[in-house]
Amino acid sequence: MVPFKSLIQLDKTASIPIYLQLSDQLNQLIQSGQLVAGQRLPGTRQLAALLELHRQTIVAAYDEGLAQGWLESRAGSGTYVAAHIPQQIPQRLDATSPVSQTQPGYAFETKPYLLRPVLTNQAGLRLDDGFPDIRLAPMEELSRAYRSYFRWGNPQQHFGYGDTKGHPLLREQLSYHLNETRGLRTTPDNILLTRGSIMGLHLACQVLLRPGDIVVIGETTWAGATMNVQQAGGRVVTVPVDPHGMDVDKLAELVSQQPIRMVYVTPHHHYPTAVTLRADRRLRLLQLAEKHGFAILEDDYDYDFHYLSRPILPLASADRKGMVVYVGSMTKSVAPAFRIGYVVAPATLIDELARLRRIIDRQGDPMLEFALGQLFKNGDMKRHLRKALRTYHARRDWFCDLLTNELPDAIQFTKPDGGLAVWATFRPDIDPEALARQAGREGLSFANGLAHNPPGQRLNGTRLGFASSTETELTQSVLVLRKLLHPLL
Ligand SMILES: Cc1ncc(COP(=O)(O)O)c(C=O)c1O
What we know:
By secondary structure, the chain is α/β, with parallel strands linked by helices. The protein contains 16 helices and 15 strands.
């Protein structure tokens, strides 16, 4: 006789009904070989007495097993484990040990280039990677637009399968917005909406790269890009980045020696150093792409925030021959959790990217895409972006003054023309790793910068994001740093 009383553990406080818990556990006993095909189960009265349950609960649990086909009833004789259940080798089922395992029973490969820390928003004082201030996001306006999607219109269209390329309203509005503010010449056919810009980068790498293709990237750069190149089988070759952006002369030298398939750039605000690619280098890069036939993957992840007069127009705006695949994002403009990004490219490439996107994500989030489209249409997005730009501009100035006045000599930096973070390099006798650890104990989080070090090099630098903190919070954060660095100042 199977010791039902000790093997079956029911939790009367759980939200799952008792009869379902019982049915699941009987099923597990069958799967683990404790109960075998053709074995007779106790009568409902007997099991009810044994488990101190109502008889109807046992009847319901057996009915569930009968409906699912792993029990069968024989007229006048009772309930049995179904005869067709294959024989299992009995295993010890220790009711006290967790059923879930940490290791699967099969082999799989861990790709070393994917082993990168995932940055998350921190509560408390923070100098983050360059995240926006979520408190500024137009939540009221967004939720109003979101609600209207649920209230009005045809539910078949609103909640059914839609266009893989994204909601038509946002594609149309983005097309107007990009043409008006960034000098692009798009129609909605040139736009694929994605979940954040990282999905756009992924799709572009998957479609454009063949194994072994060379992709040139500025050193040092954003790991999200290199990981995607590697995942697509591309070979990363780096060129230096100086205060004027990627060294395009070095690129010209490289491309004269070997074929290059793609160049990945963040020309507006290079990641992580926040420098802007100089005008002459932009033109030269485009000329080289046209001459040698390589694609330019332009990542313009935080375009909206540039503090010098007008933002510099993207490379894509000067692209006459279709060499640029332009990737942008709403995650820095609104808030990271709103995972909306986009790719701008010739329509034939957009079609192919959408075909690939379809097999991992049938479509995006039409509710959110619609709501953002509404905000562009009614002007709320423009107002939000203007306000956020003014706020971040003031915070950048405040923060840079603080660094200069409170931490003289400890940190070297150039006031960035745009973006949401300062690239700070510490004096060689200051160890940012130890400092980040100590700061964490004082309630201030910032990244230790190790992730930015190219192999075998120590840049001793990190990104200190200023946008997500108010002036008061920035002051408190810098005072924590000053306190910790005091003995060295
Ligand atoms: C350079 C760069 N590109 C792209 C992204 C990805 O942004 P998204 O949230 O749109 O995927 C980031 C994120 O911080 C980034 O730093």
